[in-house]
Amino acid sequence: MSILVDRYTRVIVQGITGQAGAFHAERMLEDKTRVVGGVTPGKGGSAVHKVPVFNTVQEAVKATGANATVIFVPARFACEAILEAIDARLPLIVVITEGIPTLDMVRVRRRVAGAAIRVIGPNCPGLISPGACKIGIMPGYIHRPGAIGVLSRSGTLTYDAVYQLTQAGLGQSTCIGIGGDPVLGSSFIHLLPFFEQDGETEAVVLIGEIGGTEEEEAAAFIKAHMTKPVFAFVAGRMAPREKRMGHAGAIVAGGKGTAAEKIATLKAAGVTIVESPADIGHVVKAALSSRRHVRTTVR
Amino acid sequence: MKLHEYQAKQLFATAGIPVPRGVVATTRDEAAGNYETLKRQCGGGEAFACNVKAQLHAGGRGKAGGVLVARSAQETSAHAAALLGRRLVTKQTAPDGLPISAVLLDERIAVARELYLALTIDRFNARPIALASHCGGIDIEEVAASRPQAILREGIDIVDGIPDASLSRIAETLGCIPEQAEACGRIVRAMWRLFESTDASLIEINPLVVTDDGRLMALDAKVTLDDNALFRHPDLAAWRDESQEQPLELRAGRIGISYVGLDGTIGCLVNGAGLAMATNDIIKLSGGSPANFLDVGGGANVEQVTNAFSIILADPRVKAILVNIFGGIMRCDWIAQGLLNATQQLEMKLPIVVRLQGTNVEEGRRLLAGAARLNLVSVDELADAARRVVVLAK
Q1: Were B104 and a residue from B53, B90, B170, B203 both cysteine, which residue would form a disulfide, CB within 3.0 to 4.6 Å?
Q2: How far is A155 from chain B (nearest CA, A)?
Q3: Residue A145: helix, strand or coil by DSSP?
Q4: Would you say A68 and A91 are in contact if contact means Cβ atoms under 8 Å apart?
Q5: Model ipTM value
Q6: For residue range B79-101, what is the model confidence (pLDDT) as tens digits?
Q7: pTM for the whole thing?
Q8: What is the DSSP code string of B70-108?
Q9: DSSP string of B276-331?
Q10: In chain B, what is the greatest distance between 2 CA atoms, to the nearest angstrom?
């Protein structure tokens, strides 16, 4: 009923003694996540919310058997923290930190190339398989276990979309925020195959935005490989050219990466486009009910 | 962060990329004096001519009258006086243009051919990339659209750098003869060193020229730095020219608010960049027009909400405001309290439509309803809120 994580996933929190790390470690524990350790150099031996803190990722993995990490380390030290997690061979690395230099992410992607390691983020809300595991900062209570996979480049817009799905009686298998930066650990096309293969996921909701080519690449993959229905909303139709719209990646440069282009490409790949951000729940619900019976959650 | 041409050329010269001799000036007297300096440096005679190039953060300056030729100190002074301080409107600027911060006096170069060379980030493949084309001196995006095969793309490895084979292909694309190919390789390598050492997101030479005596030289220089990496480069961060930025965007940026001015009448206050874009979109879908994009950030406390309102209100075109908040970690009741305090503090008269959703939403809505503020309407659904605010702005 999920991709990448499940109820057995053992998570460490890098930067657990910081304000954000400590706060969200507690929220993750509340959402039933197995937070087994934390890492802050120099703070080894202490504990945060009864979670033991280690000096290095290596030590934490050895002592706890962790197989995932979430990073709250400040931007200027984040690259080092991610590389440390890669060197400790953690198969899932979720980077929440905002403001990481682009070339640092290029270095991360270079180090991770060819390894069986998945990096999510940076500058993202993380991922959640409702009821089983949350590695991130999204409000857990708006989610319900179910059959919709959600992939998004946004934060609060994703919460809104998930909330609409839940209201419409559609639960989620896994929701992943891939982040709003120009160079990401994982793009849509790296994650769509997991949803296509996942036995519990029946449809995928894609939330894109202007800038880059993530949506265009996703469209090509969907056309060639996806048998499950895909729905998409693309934010930023109103955006002027060459302006950075909050996310570093959200720039329409020289007329490339516009919402109109992305929508046309996705449509041509057979994706159902949701025109209004307020209609995500209704549109998915209506399309799936007319298509075939989809397991709905009891609310 | 964008750099001016003269700043970029300074970096080029230090990195070993050939550029014309040039001197920058910010006053007409300085410009006149610099004409004499440049004339001496170039060994120029009586009628020594130089370019006087307007410095602003946009291309298309030549066609807009931002590049003039001067043949004397007097003429240089006159050109500088005509350019400095004035706003230049080019194809790439907003309709009101950008102020000319400085003028660059540049040696004139006899050009045989104009080429294009740039380094940027290939987002999808997560690596830097070199772009080269024999079509230089023109808008490269037009080339990319009409003749994509005229642009060579060579990936760069962040660890191993640029392979020799890539350098050969770039030189070949640029039509270099063997002696030039070597110089071309040195230029590309220097660009890459500069790119990595400054955390650039773009280094563009358009045009890179072949001079009439066969040398390669960067006639123009465009460098954009990664804002996220400026903490590593305080010396470069100090080069920021705030006169080139929109005043409200600048003011918002200083307090951690992302703001982009648009040309409509509905002010928007939203938490999260994606939701802020989607809010602009739904206003448009409902027949209205947003005055701005505004992401108030994650920790939307009372002070931040007040600041955001004052920025929205600084735009005289705003006739109504839509507040769209999805409370995640940030509770809706806190946001509601912030809204009430802010509107009271700022004595706001404009109608405000508030759509709250998420954590503690009932308490948030109760607070708003209880306040019975005449100009503030709380609406549960986003589509409904957008329709309401569009009517109020008419």
Answers
A1: B53
A2: 6
A3: strand
A4: yes
A5: 0.93
A6: 999 999 999 999 888 889 999 99
A7: 0.93
A8: ESSHHHHHHHHHHHTTSEE--TTS-TT-EE--EEEEEE-
A9: HHHHHHHHHHTT--BSEEEE--S---HHHHHHHHHHHHTSTT--EEEEEEEESSS-
A10: 81
